[in-house]
Specification:
Elements (H helix, E strand, L loop, with lengths): L4 H11 L5 E6 L2 E6 L2 E7 L2 E4 L3 H6 L5 E2 L8 E4 L5 H14 L8
Antiparallel strand pairs: 1-2, 2-3, 3-4, 4-6, 5-6
């Protein structure tokens, strides 16, 4: 089931204090980026964030699930309504992720 575009925009807005947030369609759902760095996925109307130790330290509840069949586990973020929490979690997660590779 594809994610609802209104919910995707809501999540983008909720994370916006972390930086320039964009959601891009990927394989029927969405990749979510902060300042050009992919930090998570929105699949089946659920937010998943790449696991990092910095992110783990901030989680209110640690729940790891694959966003789609065959995927590695990501942090499943159930609480998408707390803008400050979500933006801080995204910001700290992105600090720990490697820079995207430059395309040739």
């Amino acid at each position: 089931m594809a994610s609802n575009a209104d919910l995707v925009q809501y999540i983008v807005d909720q994370c916006s204090d972390a930086g320039n947030i964009e959601a891009k369609k990927m394989f029927g759902d969405y990749g979510i980026y902060c300042n050009g760095k992919i930090f998570g996925l929105i699949c089946d109307n659920r937010l998943f964030i790449k696991p990092t130790e910095e992110g783990r330290a901030m989680l209110r509840k640690e729940e790891c699930l694959p966003p789609y069949e065959g995927a590695k586990d990501y942090f499943y973020i159930e609480d998408i309504d707390d803008r400050d929490y979500l933006s801080t979690l995204v910001r700290e997660t992105c600090k720990a992720l490697p820079e995207p590779k430059k395309r040739k």
